[in-house]
Every structure is written in C-alpha cells, then in structure tokens.
Amino acid sequence: MFPDLGPLIWHSFGTMVVLLQEIMSVYPTLSPPTLSASVSNRACNVLALLQSVASHPETRDPFLKAEITEYLYPLLNTTIDTRSFEYLRLTTLGVFGALVKVDDTEVVNSLLKSDIIHLCLRIMETGSELSKTVATFIVQKIIIDEAGLQHICGTPERFFGIASVLASMVAEQPQPSTRLLKHIIRCYLRLTDDPRARTALQTNLPEALRDGTFDNCLGDDAVARLYLQQLLDNLAEPAGEAPPPVPGPAAAGVTHLGSAPVAGGAPHPGPGPVAGASPRGSSQAGPSCAHQGPAPAAGGAPHPSPGPAAGASPGGSSQAGPSRAHPGSASTAGGAPHPGPGPAAGASPGGSSQAGPSHAHPGSAPAAGGAPHPGPGPVAGGSSGGSSQAGPSRRRR
C-alpha cells in the first residue's frame, strides 16, 4: 500500500466525508440483516482506506479526535454469522487493530471511553477464528497499557468478564491456533501484574494451561512457551498484600499537641503567658485583689481615682475576681485621704498582673494618728515591663 495514503486521504477536500457516507449507507442493511455480498465488499474497501488513515502516525491523532471510530461501532454490533457479516466485522476490527498496534496511552484512553472492549469480548465468543484472533489482540494491547489494566481490574465485573471469555476460548477447542493461544496467554500474563487479579487467577486459570495440554501446539513458538512459563511462575507466588494503613494522631489518643486532656473533660488549651510575662500581655487569674485607688476613710468621702491604677497596664488587660482596696495609701481613721500614689507595687507600665488573694501592703501604712506617709516609688518586686504574680502575703515586719 502507498505509505502516505493516509495523509493524502485525510487532507484531500471532501474525501473523508464521502467515505463516511459510504459507511452510513450500510446501516439500513444491518437490521434487519439484509447485507449483500456486494454491499459488504464495498464497505470493506472503504474500511481499508480508513485503516490507512488510522495507522499513519501523522493522521492517527486527528482520526481519534474527530471520533471517526463512532461510525464503526454499529458494524461490530452484529451477531449474524453469514460470510458478508463476518467479513465486515473482520475488516472493521482491522481499523481498531491499526490504532492499538502502536503503544499509545492516548489511543487506549480514547477507546476506554467507548464500547470497544464489550464488542471485542462478544466477537471472541461467537466469531470465526480469525475474528477472535484480531479481537483478542485488541484486548491484549488495551490491557498492556497501565490505564487499560487499571480499568479492567477496577471492578470484579470487568475482570471476570474478560477472564470467563478467555477461559471459554481455551476450553472450546482442544488445539486452537498458535497465534490465538499466544494472545490468550499474553492476556492472562498481563492480568497477573495486578495483585487482585493474580489472586483470582490462582483458582480460576484453566487446567489445560497447567497440565501441558498445549505443549505440542506451542512447540514451535519459543515466545509463547516463555509467556506460559512466566504465567505459571507468577501464579505460584503468593499475591502481595496491601500494607496496613498508618494510624493518625486521633487513633493514637493524641488530641492536642502541647496539652493533655483533663480527666473526663475537653483538652486544655495551651497556657497563656506565665509569671514574668512580656509587656502587653494579658493575665488570667482566680480571685485577686485588684490594685485600685486608695480606700476612703471610715465615714469619709471617696478618694478621687488616681492615674493608672495599680495593676492596670496601658497595653494589657486584667481579669480578676473579688478584690479588696489597696492599702498602700489608706488614710487613718478620720484623717484626710492620702493623695494617689505613683505606680504601686507590682504595677507595670506595659504589663499585666496575675494575683491570688492578697492583703494590705505594709510599705506605706501611716502611723496611728500621724501624718500620712508619702506614696512609695516602685517597691521591691515591681518591674518596668513585666508582671507580678503573688499568692497570699503577710505584713512585713
């Protein structure tokens, strides 16, 4: 055949349209089956031209993208065993055989979207020996591709559909042709590359392939005998098991990193700033004595609020329970209130305070009946940028 016939047909004006019209003119003769030998022969000549287009590397991809194969499936979807129908099916299979002859994943993916596997399996069951050989070759080339193997082994129905047809082909003839038997063995061998299919074939492989029934048939074909031996070796090995899944953190009892769950309760959140926290932090505290302004004397007017209260911070926030008045500026009974102190003990310009229950600070308490003592500066424990935590304290002696 002319080597560049495919590109000439594809690129010549109107040629592909005329060829497709010839194919569609056969449809009315398929059902009811009235296909004559002359019409079948004419359609087969058109199919031979399409095969040249499908087999050429320059026109193979455009042929697939144009979905020309969709016009050919009705020609395969027949079961009449007359000579004209058988010849038409065989020539149509030749077009698909030309497509898959070259290993190409795009071709396989395109065919997997169609009904070609189902049609080939039916021909493998009911067709002539030559049609069975071509159909088995097409299935073989599809499953040799990784995408085709995953498609076939993806569901039990697809796998056992192919396995049962292959087994029936082995059993129906005691001595099939060497070429057909070679394609059957090659299909079985490729299926053993999938662990699930290998496990199934260990109990479903036809006994005729194990007991040497076809030794005479394969005597002259070293490649076929090598395929059969490799198949038996693969089935003799145990099928690999999938590794167990790796448990996640929840399965191991880990709930939150850096926190332990309270007995019977929800996991504790991560701790906030600890004692001596940095400026502009926040404090969490139980019942504490908020550093307020000076308490009013008994029966006296309340003292005006001072500047930044003890424990207040420009950038922080405090949380406190019940609080008591700060004694650092308390006045004597009946005396005038003491002016507001400066930053009290434990106060920080930018920090925050955490405190439990505390008592009066003795550092600035006035003598009984005497003049009030001037407010102290920052006392021991006060920090310019930190925070103080204190439990219950006693008067300094």
UniProtKB/TrEMBL annotation:
Biased composition (Low complexity): 249-266, 274-283, 290-336, 344-371, 386-397
BP term (GO), one: mRNA catabolic process
Pfam families linked: Rcd1
Gene Ontology CC annotation, any one: CCR4-NOT complex
Positions of the UniProt region annotated as Disordered: 238-397
Protein family per UniProt: Belongs to the CNOT9 family.
Protein name, UniProt field: Cell differentiation protein rcd1
Species for this entry: Setaria viridis
